[in-house]
Amino acid sequence: MSSMHYSNRQMCTGGHKTITMPCYTKIMTCDSICGKILPCGQHQCQRKCHDGYCTKTSEKCKQLCQTLRNNCGHMCV
Predict the structure, then answer these.
(1) 74 versus 13: which is more confidently predicted?
(2) Is the separation of the CB atoms in 23 and 8 below 8 Å?
(3) What is the domain range of residue 63?
(4) What is the rounded end-to-end Cα distance, in angstroms, of the chain?
(5) 33 within 8 A of 47, measured Cβ to Cβ
(6) Is 20 left (phi over 0), alpha (psi -120 to 50) or beta?
(7) How many CB atoms lie within 10 A of CB 19?
(8) Tens of pLDDT along 7-18?
(9) What is the per-residue pLDDT across 19-42, written as a single tens digit (0 to 9) for each?
(10) Class of residue 14 by CB neighbours under 10 A (exposed 0-12, middle 13-18, buried 19+)
């Protein structure tokens, strides 16, 4: 029996680029920043290419932006 592993060339899970990985790899990720829009609708995911959701559904966005808060007029943090 041969110990050779065949390469699988396909798009990474984030859709950034085509990569070559061993055929037994189930989730193909690259080293690019994810870039998907977060649930807040104003920021992009800063994690490296990944499978699944960018944040937990209960997690609030913590990225700084220029949006003013409705209740006090200060910038969000």
Answers:
(1) 13
(2) yes
(3) 1-77
(4) 58
(5) yes
(6) beta
(7) 18
(8) 788 999 999 999
(9) 998 888 888 999 999 999 998 888
(10) buried
